[in-house]
Amino acid sequence: MKTDLIVLGGGSAAFAAAIKAAELGKSVALVEGGAIGGTCVNVGCVPSKALIAAAAAWHTAGHHPFQGLQTQAQHVDFGTVVAEKDAMVDGMRQARYLDVLASYPLVRWVKGMGRLCSTAPIRLETAGDVIEADRLIIATGAHAWAPPIWGLEETPYWTSTGALAATELPGSLIVLGASAVGLEIAQFYARLGTRVTVLEALDRIAPQEDADVSAALTEVLRQEGLAVAAGVTVQSVRFRGHFHVTAERGGKRIDYTAEKLLVATGRRPTTAGFGLEEAGIALDRRGAVVVNDWLETSVAGIYAAGDVLGQAMFVYVAAHGGTLAAQNAFGGRERFDLTALPKVTFTDPQIASVGPTEAEAEQEGIACRSTSLPLTYVPRALANRDTRGFIKIVAENDTGRVVGVHILASEAGEMIQPAVFAVKYEMTIEDVRSNFFPYLTMAEGLKLAALTFDKDVSKLSCCAG
């Protein structure tokens, strides 16, 4: 079989690459042996957000802040909640992947695992056939990674996939890892009645985020009943009907016990078994494919995109990279640029950020200052009766250029995009506060935060600025 492009993988990066190539008039063989759609729609973003939303509805029914409204959180039929989630995932996979695939006659899905057997010319063995192509894009994604803890491999621990597929609520759950995946899953299980303990090896939860965000979210989670401990080194895991975790913290041994154990300690690129190293494609020490600024690997004509790069493992980055890789494979010359990349953690309140923290900016040699606006000064947050969190802006001293924005708020993910534009297009604090922001929106908080650089917002009327 001869084609213009082979795309190895079937997730977001792979589909974006295949679509772009087809738009350029190129024939594509999309080689995927597993479920079409990749991590996001099948076992990641989509199912997790569906369960998070369900847990939020249950939690709000029993814990809303409005006087005079009597509501009650009643029975949880978790099996039905999960079945509804599964039906939605099936529908999105059909509509967003399989139906989309059918609309591009130049793209052919080859069902099977692929292995690179030659690079000059490019040949891939799959499903009892050999596909030859002018170009190849590697988009094989990533998989959950567990640290080398004594005894862990012999236990039936959960990764995020197992935690999102369970049909019964456990009475208790230990979560190892307190970055986005661990925190999101921990909170939704806790809200539905599971006793949850979160253990983080580093000195704070959400360790990649602003330190003040980490501290504030820790307090919120503890108020909701989660046990949260950072600076914990797990030494061993045993399973005897329950999980028994032995750890050390501050020189003291601590033992934890729970029905289930979720290991949410990160993901690693999926590159084994595809013949990449044998073909001379450079990988880094974690198995990620090494690429240049144009997403080309160490072998001419072979590109890579998505989580297999081991950086910025977000579905929107994967899709952008897939499009760019296909474009560059056929004559384009656009750089893969992650400047002004937004990140969101879908806890409640949410974390959203773009650009460096103040400490990170100073490490980069940027002399800066920051201001932090509590949500108690944001009118919409007051109306919502939810003032948990704050908005922090980091700006360069000399120019006032906005270099970073960090938000903890119930709608932080919806608020971050104006901040992305501010960072990307090098807006100043004055640029931000001179723009119109609709009153009684959470986004107005960005303008108020900008005003705090030289004004006391407590002395302003509702719409003054």
Q: How would you characterize this protein structure?
A:
With 465 residues, the protein is an alpha/beta fold. It is built from 13 helices and 21 strands. It has helices at 12-23, 38-43, 45-63, 78-102, 160-165, 180-191, 211-223, 315-329, 358-363, 379-383, 412-424, 429-433, 444-451, and strands at 2-8, 28-32, 107-111, 114-119, 122-126, 129-138, 142-144, 172-176, 195-200, 227-230, 233-239, 243-249, 252-258, 260-263, 267-269, 302-304, 342-345, 350-354, 368-374, 390-396, 402-409. Strands 1, 2, 3, 4, 5, 6 and 16 form a 7-stranded mixed beta sheet that branches. The N and C termini lie far apart (66 Å). The model has no long low-confidence stretch (mean pLDDT 97).
